[in-house]
Design goal:
Blueprint: E1 2-4, E2 28-30, H1 41-51, E3 77-78, E4 87-88, H2 91-102, E5 107-108, E6 115-116, H3 119-126, E7 137-138, E8 147-148, H4 151-162, E9 167-168, E10 175-176, H5 179-189, E11 198-199, E12 208-209, H6 212-219, E13 227-228, E14 240-241, H7 244-254, H8 272-295, H9 303-310, H10 317-320, H11 330-336, E15 344-345, E16 354-355, H12 358-369, E17 375-376, E18 385-386, H13 389-399, E19 403-405, E20 419-421, E21 426-427, H14 433-438, E22 465-466, H15 469-480, H16 486-495
Antiparallel strand pairs: 1-2, 3-4, 5-6, 7-8, 9-10, 11-12, 13-14, 15-16, 17-18, 19-20, 21-22
Helix pairs in contact: 9-16
Amino acid sequence: MMLVSPRPAPLLRSLDNPLSPPLVSPSVKIHCREQSPPSSPIQDDEEAEDEYLPQASGSGPRSRSTSAPACRTERKFKCRHEGCDKAYFKPSRLAEHELTHTGERPHKCPECGQSYLRASHLTAHMRTHLSADAKPFKCERDRCGKAFWTATHLKRHEDTHDKAEVYPCHECDQTFAKAHLLREHHALVHMPEGTKLFQCPHEGCDKSFNMKAHLRAHEKTHDANRYTCSHPSHGTDFPSFPVWSALQTHIQQAHPPICPHAECNGRAFKNAQRLKDHLKVHDQQAADKAALALAHPEGELPLLLLEGISRSKRRRISQVEKPEDGGASPKLRRVKSGESGKDWWCDEEGCEKRFKTKFALESHRKAIHLSLRPHICPIEGCGKSFPHKSNLTRHVASHSRPTTPIDRDADNSNGLVGKVKEVRRFGCPAHAFQKFIQAPPDVLAPTPTSETPLENEDSDRCLKRFWRVYDIRRHLVAEHNIEIEDMECRRLLIFDRQG
């Protein structure tokens, strides 16, 4: 009986001499079951194994080849779609791949309509429509009772039963096969309620976390030398801190950024950005002083103008004094023009006030029309109340303002005795406004003459006095209907010879 084998058959040699040349062609397999001598099961297994081992070519001794057949090394079936270089060993795999180009998914679930490229994928999906009791592979080890869909998953589960329990609990006599089971047991049984799985091992720390990465990040805070301050003022003894926030607090308190300008007297700032913004004010002040020096080259600038330039957040003169059609931004024009932008009108009868914000309108209505004065002076015996907190703050400061005694021997003594409050710095300059606007722009103060002194030109001039230029501006608007900006108000005071 002679059959053609689909695989390369082993070379048959003489029974007397195993090293003799082969008796038949390697492509022919001879079955002589009736004449073959009885063999042991081990010999049968060895012969069956040798039957499927590819043999090396030649007439020498038999040897195993390490090369795989051509059908397992060459991808003959290539995709013909343009731009796709995929290739496969089997035509069935190529057919499945071509479905990705056409978008066809032939295997559909009869329950939910979900479709798949492969039948095996559909088979795995169909299990989701079955109950857990339908799992055919059940574990029978130690009354486990767990069931699985495939034999591979069951075998993987049974391996866990064969492994020794290597994670013992140090609090009790229980052991566990996995580390996460031990963590869950320790947190649930031996720790207070609410303790999470990953607990900090440092003594005295009771913090716990749900993730190991969070625990590792927390453990770094127990390193006291994690962050070090390298400021040169420490010399060789650099202090260290466990957390970044502690280092930043130390830097803010011990090494705050300081303004280098002498007029600031070592003013400290919260961080470097605040100092950077502050230094821009100095740069603007220097530019404003240079602009004023060019306008008045004859001498030193008046102190009152320098104070106006030195105020923080003051707009540059070159920007504020631009003409309306000179390209200034709308925001600058709104600041310069007091009427533009006042879109909130007071709806009380007889009141024609209008404001630029709703907050200003509400403050006006509460203070003027409702007469609400919720801010009361806390000084004992005073009892005064004010509509705005800023008014109260200014009033409280007046209680501690130094006083100046009256010089009884002076010729201009008015007969008062005791101590009186210090005379406020500025008087109302409304009487000089008309001459101020007619004077040339480069004139700061008129030349005094005996014929027309400004002090005696009006007998009914306003006698109110103020501490600040801001208060003068508010007074001029409210009482004299004169609205000017800060620097112009200062020039008006100098023109009135009050600067």
